[in-house]
Amino acid sequence: MLRTSGIHHITAIVNNPQVNYDFYSNVLGLRLVKKTINFDRPEVYHLYFGNESGDPGTIITFFPWPKLAKGRIGSGQVGTTSYVIPKNSSGFWKNRLENYEIAYIETTRFNEEYIQFQDPDGLQIEMVERDADTGNSWSTEEIKPEQAISGFGGATLFSAQPNQTADVLENIFGMDFVNQEGDYLRFRAQELLGNMIDIKLSPSVRGLAGAGTVHHIAWRAKDEDELQKWHKLLETNKLQPTEIKERNYFKALYFHEMGGILFEIATDPPGFSVDEAPNELGAELMLPSWFESKREEFEAALPPIEVKRVKE
């Protein structure tokens, strides 16, 4: 049986690219590992943030559309993105959020304590202490490795048909059912990061795409050969995957599961160093070869982003 090892990346829609960069890089301390364009809508940036090397399981990506209307978080979407922080770092993060005047609440789920808050566009984020044992060597003047976000803890899915979404996680993706607690089902994948997926059972309003909502969640495939096997499995189960697409940093396919959430399966390789040196990730606007001839056009149309080199 094929088994995904967890989340590859999560992609969301926001408005202002500078506000987006300032929050995820300067407030949360993630590294901008790639500044490129949306390959399907090249007039829009595609920004990738993660750990120092941009490993699968750490990457959150954004399509910034400055004039796009606000969306509504609800069914058919990822409702909350979870981050793992090191043990004994919750106090640091609560103080940091307070210093930036970011409201947060504390809650408990499956015997874990979460710090929940929103980013500037209204995306729902939470932090949880776990022994992920991976660490993050990316540090800033204010955030040291012993406090730095390790990567994803998981996500909470708001499904229009939660039991059918659960069936996909368990019987297509090969995740293990952990438990049910109140309104939530929990499933676990194999990796230490991006491995805990909760499905909310109680009804929510229908989600509307727009700024401040998650566009899709991507699951890991170890290589292109495995991705081909995923494609065949999805077709066999009548889940209607797209063709495999070239995304430069990975290859990917897409499908909507029965609860309305857009799922992607993406390969771990080749990664973000295919067109930039590891110590220069995120420094320049990178374009795939088929768009390079239009570089001047894109650079003139895209809004500037002031990228601060926050590495010590």
UniProtKB/TrEMBL annotation:
The keyword Oxidoreductase applies. It holds the Pfam family Glyoxalase. The keyword Oxidoreductase applies. Keywords: Dioxygenase, Oxidoreductase. GO terms for molecular function: dioxygenase activity. Residues 6-130, 151-268 form the VOC domain. This is Ring-cleaving dioxygenase. It comes from Oceanobacillus chungangensis.
